[in-house]
Write the structure tokens for this entry.
Amino acid sequence: MLILNRKSEEEIYIETPEDRITLKVIGIDGKAVKIGIDAPKEITIYREELYRQVNMENRESVMKKEALGELSGLFGDLDDKK
Amino acid sequence: MTIQTNVGEIQLEEKDIVIFKQGIPGFELLRKFAIIALEDTKPIQWLVSLEDKEVSLPVIDPWLVRYDFHLDIPKNIVNYLNITNQDKLFILSVVRIPGSKPEEMTVNLAAPIVINLDNNQALQYIPEKSEYKLRHFLKEELERSKKLSQKKDGDD
């Protein structure tokens, strides 16, 4: 992992062949660092823990059809409406 | 083409293949999926990998679970999926069934699967902030939806 020292207000550029993403240290308050990110519109930015939660949720969801169990009745009322 | 999946052997055409350019969280290396609707698991559908036959996720129409579900798709996702027509979006929620007990089923309303049917590009959209949770209990949601829809019918 590349490790860089940055002070408040200092920036880092991450360049891909097409784009540049700018990270800026906006401020530091104790253990919390506020980071500003400038990125192209189609780029998606996640907090790692949020992404990890979805990752774990998806992994837990994987199942075979046979393991589904008995569904009938669960959706009874809504099925009738459809 | 015929493909072996976790939910059985399925017949597919090229146009049925949905592409997740970055995979889905947990399965980042898998790109090609299909949505399979099976009569015997209705209303649960299946998001199946066409590259790893062990990977199949139960999914459901979020509006079946939450009557007044709504979703705002931000500009970056519109660009990413090249969305030109909102009517061509297909939204699904991943379902989790702990220990094969359907009555304990939870539904991920916070991070829906968004598919652009115009070009079959898809992603799992993870909003930074959502009013929904990763786990909504199906039973509670169905009760809530039932009350809401009855209220609405009464108003009409």
